[in-house]
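User: Before I run my own analysis I want an independent prediction to cross-check against. Here's the chain; please return only the structure tokens and, at the end, one sentence I can use as a sanity check.
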Amino acid sequence: YNLNMASGLLGRCDSCWNNFRTILCQQMCSPDQSTFMEVLEQIPVPGQELFAARSFLTSLTEEYAVKLFDSCSEVQAYGMQAIDLICSDANCTYARLLKELGDNSSRAPFYTDYYVGNAQDKAIQPLEANVLSHCWEAPEGGEACTCEDCSEICRQEMVTASYDRRPCNRNSAEALQEAWDEVENSKKVTFSATKKEKVPTATLR
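Assistant: Structure tokens:
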């Protein structure tokens, strides 16, 4: 996959960009590839008695797929959601994103099919989401997304601002709870995340 192009779209949000690179690096460079990837097709290497892998099946937990997608779903590029540009679809879902990442007819060096769900056998264990960051979490060596690219950051900033206005003599826990309640019940500002289609647990082809 063309990382330079992807960086231009997603690089403004470290959390998203780190997650995007992580899934590609796990597939290309991980010494544990055989624990979450299976070779589907091999082709002979010209002039050598060797075979090269032509296509793979990569297994992910659903939490991994959702966390990857959600961390990038609100990142903006050219006045729209960057993830929709990558998917070439204004209604991108994590299933559509994975299909685009694995489709070698566009930008990937080989074809990758994705299985999303729990382990189907003991040999293959789907990638776990604990290596990824939410958009409001700062990855190692980076920063969390900004409010513009992560609505949860906006919500947290509103809570902080509301809490800071509370009298100093108030119980801090009580004041913080009231701040959260104020944001939740606010009619002035509403952040509504775009509804994303949830696909059944299955192999994505």
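Sanity check: The two ends are 18 Å apart (CA to CA).
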